[in-house]
Write a structure and sequence with these properties.
single chain; mainly alpha; 2% strand; rod-shaped
Amino acid sequence: MGSDCLKVTKYFLFLFNLLFFILGAVILGFGVWILVDRSSFISVLQTSSESLKVGAYILIGVGAVTMLMGFLGCIGAVNEVRCLLGLYITCLLLILLAQVAAGLLIYFQRDALKTELSVVVRDLIRVYDPDDKDKKSIQDAWDYVQEQLACCGWTGPQNWTENEILLNKSLTSYPCSCFNGSVDIPPKSGFCDIATNKTVSVADWPVYTKGCMSNVQNWLQDNLGIILGVCTGVAVIELLGMVLAISLCKNIHREEYSKVPK
């Protein structure tokens, strides 16, 4: 009976560790995505948000270590190595604490991220310059957001009236990525000119009238929710893995003790 229980525990632990490995890769992927993404507004927020970068590095570290521990846990479970299982339980506890820290950091910084994003975007709009090569990747990211979300500016297209270049042109140009039309589609970045000799206002621009704030904040909320959900799922599995590893260690000890000659 004890031998059968040992086998069941061993193979369950092996399956759990295989799942650890996969979920660890997912967490690592989330962290890398936050750091290297250049096609959405995440790249805009990276320029000022230290909390986002710290959270990303924690996720990468936790993901990499989780993958390693999943691999070692599989070996320890299959070969019934108590020493390796003991190391596995200790490291698993440390990983769990790090995950909780990363999750709490991301959760409690949500409002701060929204505030930081608002400040960064408005500053970006104010100094937007298609000829500035140093800020091209950030500007392209915001152009991508406006085009994909069908919006213009942060609270609305009037935010672009603060841009120095557009003011110098007396608003006879508008951001191309804000264009709202189906014909004569302009480039997806930079400024487009309006052919007119009259005084122009924002109302004359062929652009989206809705700002990007609500869409961007909803996107941020949804994706942070996904990250937190994955971390929570991994934490629950890690707790179950620790219970199975402790149970396996005890069963191995009993099996070894029962084989000792009386």
